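Why predict the complex rather than its parts? Because the way molecules touch one another can change local conformation, and only a joint prediction can capture that. The input here totals 621 residues.
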Amino acid sequence: MLATRLFTKNNQKIFYMNKVLSLVILASFAFFASCKKDSATPEYNTAQNGSISVEFDNIVGTSDLQLNTGSYTNSSNQVYKVTKLKYFVSNFKFNNIDGSVYTVPQDSSYFLIDESDVNRRLAKLKIPEGEYTSVTFTLGVDSLRNTMDISKRTGDLDVTGVATDMYWSWNSGYIFFKLDGTSTAVTTMGGVFQYHTGGFGGYTSATANNLKTITLNLSARGSAKVKASKTLGVNVHLLVDVNKVFTGTNTISLATTSMVHSITLGVPIAANCASIFSHDHTEN
Amino acid sequence: MYRKHYLTILIFVAGIIACNKNVVDEVVTFVNPSYFPKPTYNLENNPISKAKFELGRKLFYDPILSANNTISYGSCHIQTSAFTHHGHTVSHGILDRLGTRNSPAIMNLAWASSFMWDGGIVDLDLQAIAPITNHVEMDDSLPNVLAKLRTHAQYPGLFKNAFGSSDVTGINFLKALSQFMVMCVSNNSKYDSVKRNQASFTTVEIQGYQVFQQKCETCHKEPLFTDYSFRNNGLSISYQNDEGRFLVTNNPVDKYKFKVPSLRNLSYTAPYMHDGRLLTLDAVLDHYTTNVQATQNLDALLQNGITLNAVERTNLLAFLKTLDDKSFLLDKRLSEQ
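Output of the joint prediction:
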């Protein structure tokens, strides 16, 4: 707002002043602005933790995702609606500009993202002060946690509570990613499609592993400058494009694939899910 | 006068002893028989206590855990049938919906490495979730069941007694049920008495034991009478085309494989096989001697079936009867109270 006003003022000035003068003013303005920036470079105290959140903003192509009402078209020209979108993100790591890596303690690094719940779109974390240029996380629940005693699966991992529909009770393990909806391309089950992926590599027998590690570089669109003094914290805003579930490594057609409820059937979808995340901007 | 007092005191003391005996009978501890392996269930994460066990038992028999409050765990796992669903090929659950498999016995689960016919469940603490959420079994959800328990007149108090908090948490719910299941130990058959040198086999039983060791023991490993492996034992493929372990691993080598069941309490757990298709023990032996089908992944040990002559068969059946444990079926601690 302020920037716009200044710009407007400058425009008016340019209108009355000669070009040279305006350039001088602009240059000096730029100089002061850059000085101000230099003087504001934060000094980080790595002994202190600051707040950071990673926001999972679910979209379809260039539209915001609207559950139940929005109608979308995938790369195979199939029209679909989304009734449920839920997934686990876990094991967050942040790359510091100084080359070090901070791994968030595992017990506080599991988040169930749920499009239907405004309180379940952020992974809220505490990490040491510093400038971070990339974030790494897992889509899913790692094999170790997937096989831990139930007393270690509280909060977002509670299979008797919030995670009740994100768990295969008949084949012990979390569902990592769940996309349910309807499509005119689906001719069975009243047009319903359900894409559920899971599978951490197996407990007693080997199975496919549908865990995906996602690393996003933040430097191009804004690294995260974490300071304890920032009361609102830093927010790393990610876009999660549902349309990319149907395309990428594999083309998934709703006409031929509508029900996915097993580890192996989920492999092509999970492969696509590795590329649905992108960094949009950072609110520092 | 003194004698009268003496008698009164005697009767009083006897009364106390009798009372003590009742209390002793109800003490709940998990005892690992000396000739059993180490339990797979992690008892350190869930130490057995009387209050937790009794809470688990109450939950086990309570139909409040189903969508319309009609089906309990005990409905399909009946103690007098060694906690199976006697007489049912495949079990029926809520609204008489039929499942696809025969209820497995809740027996010696503390030693099991996986659960269900396909081994899909890897931890006993997670087992109780499956029937509650299964559409054909109890057809409810854990959050809904816990909500019902939280407003129940007795459960919050029972949870407080057991866990120190009246908060009905999912974790404590599952841990209590595990305590009941862990305590379902069957180790008082004649076979067990022989192992403990408290009895001896008859000649026929000894000969049957030898047949067993030659022809059955590889899969039905002593003393639990299963090696917990998954095998295709040559049943013809059912009309449901149940692919067994394959549904869990999605690995083609697991197609048509099912878990080797224990042979303990065999007399009480008919019908047999994962879908209950064989109604008698004779039919089971007929299967292995004459009916083994060469379906995909047939177990290497059964390529030619099992040969048994008439005498061997009689002796084997005599030995198998020594695995019956009537006391397990009558154990009042495990019964609905």
